Task: structure prediction
Amino acid sequence: MIDEHEIKAKIQSELDRIRSQTQRIVEKQLTLDEIFKLHLSQLLFENTSDGILITDSSFTILKVNASFTTITGYNQEDVVGKNASVLKSGKHEDVFYQELSESLIKTGKWCGEVWNRRKNGEMYLQYLSIFPITAENSQIAGYAGFYNSAIVLNDDCTQLHNNAYHDTLTGLPTRVLLNERLEHQLSHSKRKKQVMALLLLDLNRFKTINDTLGYAAGDLLLQIVTTRLKSCVREVDAIFRLGDDEFAIILEDIAQQQDAARVAKRVLSICSLPFQLIGQEIYITISIGISLFPPDGDNVETILKNAEAAMQRAKELGINNYQHYKPAMNVKAFEQLTLEHNLRKALRENEFIVYYQPLIELATGQVTGSEALVRWKHPELGMIQPGRFIPLAEETGLILPLGEHVLRTACEQTRIWQQKYCKSLSISVNLSARQFLQQDLTFLISKALEDSSLQPSLLELEITESLGMKNPELTLKTLNEIKAMGIRISIDDFGTGYSSLSYLKKFPIDTIKIDRSFVSDIHHDSNDAAIVLAIIALAHSLGIKVIAEGVELKEQADYLKHHDCEKVQGFLYSQPIPAQEFEKRFLDI
Ligand code: C2E
Ligand code: CA
Ligand code: CA
Result:
């Protein structure tokens, strides 16, 4: 026989241990430990807002606290001496309780959601933690159950809040009320000079769960998530359901920024515990974005927008993650980050391919070479045109490895064609300004030529007019070095940039490429026609050859041929195409 006092003492000391464990689990904070050390467990038992239930080893109820009475409606006299099964709602199958007992014996605890029934017959969803109490001889002497007071969901919430302001499934207020509450909270926080936080939460994989396990399971999951979220916040804080799998939490009057992070961590940790859905154990992850008032905005719209940006960032960084808003996260910066990240990956994974557009000599109608134009074959988005990623590659410096890749590929391909078809085609490669200022540019070029065994005279580098503007001395020096290697140089998009007639004299230029904006109108715009003629005349007077870009019509080609333009390039002959296709159409004859 175990003495009753001994059991009481035992229970008290177990309570200490269990309460602190639960606290650790639920709040990940240990501050209450210190209180326990001051032997306040009895006080706590009586005053905690969590319901506590103590049973013997066969689940006969020995003791309950006042909060238990508040939650369930049962007082001491109603339940002491009865089996804990009086609380059963009938909503769970027997196997649920069997698994609960097994888990208790095996792991020494059980935590999860349970549908219980109040004294008045109402059903409610409850987050419950149960721990065994062991006697001196290590035998199980009883059990302690903790009912989290914050997470009670009435079964009839559907009837209670069946309107646009409350979500019928979870009973939570909706987006309409979020805006109202934020408005109210902001002016309150402004007046009281308090800090407020908005957390936006997005459940990952929710759609898959709905699709694979059915809507009933999805609904149950959302209800359980709701109870778990409630366990993470204080009574004053508000939780909202914004959409299918989106929630929001307003934390009012927080002492410091870290408090919002602490709640976010708590949510992530409690929601990473398994969910029991229709006999299946399911895991979910959550992405959380946090924005604060005052630092991240002073009106509802901005606070919301910034929390959204932070949440997107959290999603991007990986699952089960929270992020504070940072100014760099505004949508444009965010898109750029995403792209930059993707660009790096694309380089690593060889997603860039070089297309070739033929250059045609007007006098003979022969293909004499090609221009290398890069494309990004994105695994999901398909073929991306250079206009969408070259500017970012330039901004981030990724143009250096990318440009080198294009140069090497183009030289190698041209050399292969030369050997295979005994044809010395030229190859034009675009150089961006950033590449041009690269220290070891000439070394990289000579290495590409050497490795591919391509004659330097077949390589033509295309630069733009703006290049010489920034640093004319360095530009001239580099151009002279390139020229000395036997490589040809052309000015791209001629006529669109700074008027650079003087550069034509100053720099060692071999070719001018007339921009396609002039070419497209030559046959019906006399001004454009005059400009094109002037450029051709000027170039020829300086011993420079001319290529017209963007030739789409036969009339344009005829006009250019008639006025002694040497070469053309454009859709009339071909779009830029992959190497294999180029070979088939222009070399395999
Ligand atoms: P770009 O150097 O002026 O290249 C010519 C552009 O005109 C190509 O666009 C080509 O597809 C297009 N084009 C050619 N013929 C016609 C035509 O008849 N009609 C029309 N409407 N367009 C024509 P793409 O390939 O989209 O390239 C755009 C720009 O991206 C290039 O302009 C070049 O500045 C840049 N780029 C492409 N590849 C590279 C590269 O490897 N490195 C660098 N730095 N820039 C590149
Ligand atoms: Ca070009
Ligand atoms: Ca061009």
